[in-house]
Design brief:
Length: 279
């Protein structure tokens, strides 16, 4: 059996595949359970037959901690009802979702609400295959490719439910200690890293107008996160890089403080339980 030949396999990657109905039998899922050390599942440019089959695939890996889904389509356009969550949902620590079908997006958001995530990425990015044309997120992608169409992108985000879902997800108890400004949202044109926002969006006043619209949209769609002060909106690659640097510094300082606090607590505990030598 393959699991016997790869006993220390840590990652499974499924790329550029069309998974048709009936192409994967129940025995195949059962075989996957033997890979108990697999921690990461990466699914890229894949069409799955149904949301239920994707959930079954995720469930088959008992040690799964990181799930990447990028460019995942679903042949089943209208699921009858919400599928059962994968049995290992609570153990996920990292979830990275970029351009997936709406039904799959809904499943992954539900997973994020019951898991112990340390990292959550929800994004609409990249060049997509032609079969994706005409879908909800494709319209958003088309809008973001050119500065002149950014208004269309903002309109799509206004109509989409992803920001509302994200606001709800981040209210879970295990997201209670998110750093101030720790949630970053923005538009980033990966092909224009050296182009200033003013040049990309037109005049400086035009950029500022869109800047304000995006900021207002985020805070209106995510009111609970806004009240907590954990939202940051960015408008360029440089701003995102600066935000990442600030977060790294914040978390390093927090860890150092927690380490010092732990030492002080231990000293107090040792002193409290030390034998009385006063005579």
């Amino acid at each position: 059996m393959l699991s016997g030949k790869l006993p220390e396999l840590l990652m499974i990657s499924i790329t550029d595949a069309e998974w048709t109905v009936g192409s994967m039998r129940m025995q195949c899922f059962e075989c996957l359970t033997a890979f108990r050390l697999v921690h990461t599942l990466a699914i890229t440019n894949v069409t799955v037959p149904s949301v239920a089959q994707l959930a079954r695939l995720i469930s088959a890996l008992p040690g799964l901690g990181t799930l990447w889904c990028d460019g995942v389509e679903c042949s089943q356009k209208h699921p009858v009802s919400p599928v059962s969550l994968p049995v290992n949902s609570a153990h996920l620590e990292q979830l990275d979702v970029r351009w997936v079908a709406p039904a799959i997006q809904d499943l992954l958001v539900r997973i994020s609400q019951v898991s112990r995530l340390r990292k959550l990425v929800l994004a609409v990015v990249g060049d997509l295959h032609p079969s994706s044309r005409g879908s909800r997120s494709q319209a958003l992608l088309d809008a973001t490719h050119a500065a002149d169409d950014l208004d269309g992108a903002l309109t799509m985000m206004e109509e989409d439910v992803i920001l509302v879902q994200l606001d709800d997800t981040l209210q879970a108890e295990y997201f209670a200690d998110i750093a101030p400004g720790g949630i970053c949202l923005g538009f980033d044109d990966a092909d224009n890293d050296w182009t200033s926002p003013e040049e990309l969006f037109g005049t400086e006043s035009s950029f500022r107008e869109r800047h304000n619209r995006w900021d207002e949209l985020i805070r209106r769609k995510m009111p609970r996160c806004n009240v907590r002060g954990i939202l940051t909106t960015v408008y360029s690659f440089e701003e995102e890089t600066k935000w990442r640097s600030n977060m790294d510094e914040f978390h390093e300082a927090r860890q150092n403080q927690e380490s010092k606090t732990g030492v002080e607590v231990q000293r107090e505990d040792d002193a409290e339980h030390a034998p009385d030598s006063s005579g």
